[in-house]
Amino acid sequence: MNDNQIVDSSFKAIINAPIERVDIPQWCFNLSEREYQGCSPAHVAAGFTTTPDGKRMSINVEIIGGSLMVQHYVETLGRKDHLILESTSDVFTPNGRTTIRVTWELSVKEIAPGKCELTNRVETHATDELVTFIGRQGIPLELFRAQRQPFSIAHNQSETPLFAASIERAALLNIR
Which of 34, 47, 73, 95 gets the highest tally of CB atoms within 10 A of its CB? Predict the structure, then answer.
């Protein structure tokens, strides 16, 4: 873990669908708000748009560890089997607003005919703004990291199988 890394968590779940039917970017950038909310009780809202330069962006709102987060995920890699999104996310805490860097990576590999394994990886890093924000409160980054990790890891672990189920539903839609 480097100096400003807060969390790096990764969990796996099974998708019972042929890999050729799985399209993670298609799923992500067409995910309804209701479907997103069904992937975690912490999920509040979701939508999608584009950046001024035309890159796809997923907007996600969720509550992690009691803090409301607005994530502005910009696609940096978009293959059917691998999606990487990066965000400088807004974090609203009882003590004010700050930012955090989040990388969300979803990938899938075939493990048997008609069966895939999804990996859901979330990595967060402190921004300079966050370091200043917690520093003004007398909280060392190491303490913030230790307090934040259990919430972030538990969130990722609980949403991974629900994301897999949602991706599976999307992959199997219209198959007869």
Answer: 73
Q: What is the pLDDT of residues 160-174, one digit of tens each?
A: 999 999 999 999 996
Give strand pairing partners of 110.
116
Assign domain 5-172 one CATH number from 3.90.960.10, 1.10.1670.10, 3.30.530.20, 3.30.300.130: 3.30.530.20
Phi and psi dihedrals of 5, rounded to 5? Answer: -75, 135
Per-residue pLDDT band for 114 (boundaries 50, 70, 90) equals: very high
Question: Phi/psi of residue 139, each to 5°?
Answer: -105, 115
Does an H or E element contain 130, and which? helix 128-136
Q: In sequence order, which residues have a C-beta less than 8 Å from that of residue 31 and are 6 or more positions away? A: 46, 48, 58, 166
Residue 166 in contact with residue 27, Cβ under 8 Å? yes
